Each structure stands twice: as C-alpha cells, then as structure tokens.
Amino acid sequence: MNTTMHKIxxxxxxxxxxxxYPPHARPNLSRSRMRQAVSRPLSILLIDDSxxxxxxxxxxxxxxxxxxxxxxxxxxxxxxxxxxxxxxxxILLDICMPGLDGFETATRIRALEKEQxxxxxxxxxxxxKSNPHDIARGIMAxxxxxxxxxxxxxxxxxxxxxxxxxxxxxxQLLDMKRRLEIQAHTDELTRLPNRRHFLAILDSEIARARxxxxxxxxxxxxxxxxxxxNDSYGHDTGDAVLRKVSATLDGGMRTEDSxxxxxxxxxxxxxPGSNAEQGMEPCERYRSLLESLVIDxxxxxxxxxxxxxxxxxxxxxxxxxxxxxxxADKALYQAKQAGRNxxxxxxxxxxxx
Length: 353
Ligand SMILES: [Mg+2]
What we know:
The chain is an alpha/beta fold. It is 46% helix and 16% strand. It has a 5-stranded parallel β-sheet with strand order 2-1-3-4-5, sandwiched between helices. The two termini are 22 Å apart. Magnesium ion binds next to loops. Magnesium ion is lined by residues 48-50, 94, 96-97.
C-alpha cells in the first residue's frame, strides 16, 4: 500500500515541477537542463565489446560535444546503470557481444527501469546486422532506434538529437501531469489536502491500521464562531484566517499526522499510531497553537480565535471510514456543547489497541 501518500506536500505556485518529485521518482532531466536547447551535451553510455569500435565512436561523440562512458559488455553496463542511472541520458548499444547480447541487454535495461521506477532512457542500437528481422527484434526488445554500422556521423548526430527531443517532450508531459495531479488534490485557498485527497489518506491509514493492528485516531477540527469573523471583518479576513490556521497547523504537526480541509472552516486530522487516549496530547497542543495565534486584521490588538476538536479512535473490527467520521463528528458536537475551545473525545465501542 502507499504509505507515502500523505507525505505529498501540496502544490505551491513557485514549485519546481522536478523538485516536487519524491527522490525515488525524480526525473532524469532537471528543469534547468530541459530549458537548455536540445543540442546540449549528453552523457552517453556506449556499450560495445569491440575496443576499436568504442574508440571510433567515442572520438566521434566527443567531437560533436557529448560525454561518453563505456561498457565492454551487457553485464557491466547493467551494473553501471544500477548505480549511476541518473548520470546517463542515452544508450548506444551494440548487438553482437559475448555473454548478454544487445537484445537481452536492452530487455534487462527496460526491466531495471521498471524495478527502480526510473524514467525512460533512449536506446539506439548500433549493429553490423542490417536485416529487417534484427531491426524489428531490436525495437521489440526495448530499443528506440536502430543504426547499421559503419555509422555515418551526421546521421548519428541527427538520431541523437531526435531522441533528445522526444525525451524532453516526454519530460514536459510528465511534469504537467504531475502538476495537475497535485493541483487536483490540493485545496486552493489553504494549500492543504482537499476533502477528496484527505479521505484517500484516511482510507490508506485505515487499511494500514487494519493490516498491521496499529492504532489510529482522527479529530475533526472546527473554528469557533467563524461566521462572526466573516460577518464582522469580511470574507478576505476570513480567508486570511483560514490560511493562517492551516499554515500554523501544517507547520506545527507531528510528522506522522496529516490534516486536510474538508470544507468551510472544517478540517480533519489523521493521527496514525495513536489511539484516542494517545491522540489527546497532540490535539490539545494543536488547540493551544490556535488559541495563541494573533492574526493581523489591521487592528492594534489583532484577531484571536479558538477551535473545537472532536477526537475518536479507530476500532479495526467494527469501524469503517463512515462510522469513524460519524463518531468524530459526535465528539466535535460534544466539545461545542461543553463550551468550545476544547478537545471532545468519544471512545470507540471497544478501545482500539
Ligand atoms: Mg560487437
């Protein structure tokens, strides 16, 4: 299951689309590199068993401005890629080699990419074999192009250029997709996870608590008398309050906890690893963080506010998301009834372990 889901930070406008990736999924081409013209120098991994062929190609590639790393066979190429995948932009791959031939090497490189969740690395076959069957086999094995030896330098340069152009277009599409995904699960005003994303986080934590028998609690959070703020100071101030509250909670939260904005002035906090009793201390701290906030609204004394919390624990035998949320809502109602600015608790039927 995806335990890293809740670690996705909401999108901010000045975010670098590449920097927004978790380290394991960071694309090979950085944005600054993408901005450069497609004729920028590449790091090319040259895989060929013949020292003289390698020397010839190395000289030509360096002449047209690229950096070259060499591997004399498929096995050594794979072990290089396992360690230094990010240092390569493109592979030139011979077919006739002892041990792993080029077809098998390409198949394994593609498998490695999947295994390491890496992006696509263009592969151009360079071979003395020119029959259509070999060309087709090379493409089926994961190659992107196929050149026959002896390779004309102008053609090689153009093919590398074409691969580079495709790689960069692909990267731009991936960045855009990523950006849209982040925007789709981020609340526009507060930059917190929105309702849909928060419920997905909660579902994933519920599944984890069920599977591993670990405790879980959640707390509804509702700003007290928020309507009065909107009515007295206007919606711009109301929005500023929601942003400030969100930033304060997001910044002051335990790393394992996550918060989402469900709508209006209503938020929900997920506290994995804590049952309802253990959730009291962090919730009390979050409540007190908000109580001590002073929000600048142009007046000398600033604006003060409080929040009520409805905390409950997850019972992995009898609960689902709806029953859990309903009980948190009941706890919130109790906190409001008891005078607000407090943490109300409703324990699950049987205390969660
Ligand atoms: Mg060979």
